[in-house]
Amino acid sequence: MAALRVDDKLGLVRFKVDEQGSHIAINEDCDDEKEIRLLTMACPAGLYSYEDGKLSFNYEGCLECGTCRVLSLGKLIESWNYPRGAKGVEFHRG
């Protein structure tokens, strides 16, 4: 059996989306291309995108790893919190 690729593994992760909004607030007005490029490349789930001069974030698939918080808190990331109880990524063994 062939090893699963990262994209395949991410497809197996379950999420409980918090319909009240994102647990991460981004600075959509930031135009530091170096910081933006770093953030979009570092997110293991590929949830940050930069198109037409606009940074966007899709919180629904967040792995809550904290990579963006460590790299960019106070720059592109205005605030980072874990989702409300029983929301967000559901970790399981296997």
Question: How would you explain this protein's 3D organization?
Answer:
It is a single chain. The protein contains 3 helices and 6 strands. By secondary structure, the protein is α+β, with helices and mostly antiparallel strands. It has a single domain (6-90), classed as Alpha-Beta Plaits (2-Layer Sandwich). The longest helix is centred in the middle third of the chain and has 10 residues, at 33-42. The strands form 3 sheets. Strands 1-6 form a two-stranded antiparallel sheet. The chain has a two-stranded antiparallel sheet with strand order 2-5. The model has no long low-confidence stretch (mean pLDDT 87).
Based on secondary structure, the structural category is: alpha+beta
Query: Which residues sit in consecutive blocks of at least 5 with pLDDT less than 50?
Result: none
What is the CATH first-level class name? Alpha Beta
Q: What is the number of helices? A: 3
Residue share in β-strands: 15-25%
How is the main sheet built? 2 strands, antiparallel
CATH architecture: 2-Layer Sandwich
Major sheet: arrangement of strands:
1-6
The rounded Rg comes to 14 Å
The first-to-last residue Cα distance is: 16 Å
Number of domains: 1
Q: Percentage of helical residues?
A: 10-25%
CATH fold label: Alpha-Beta Plaits
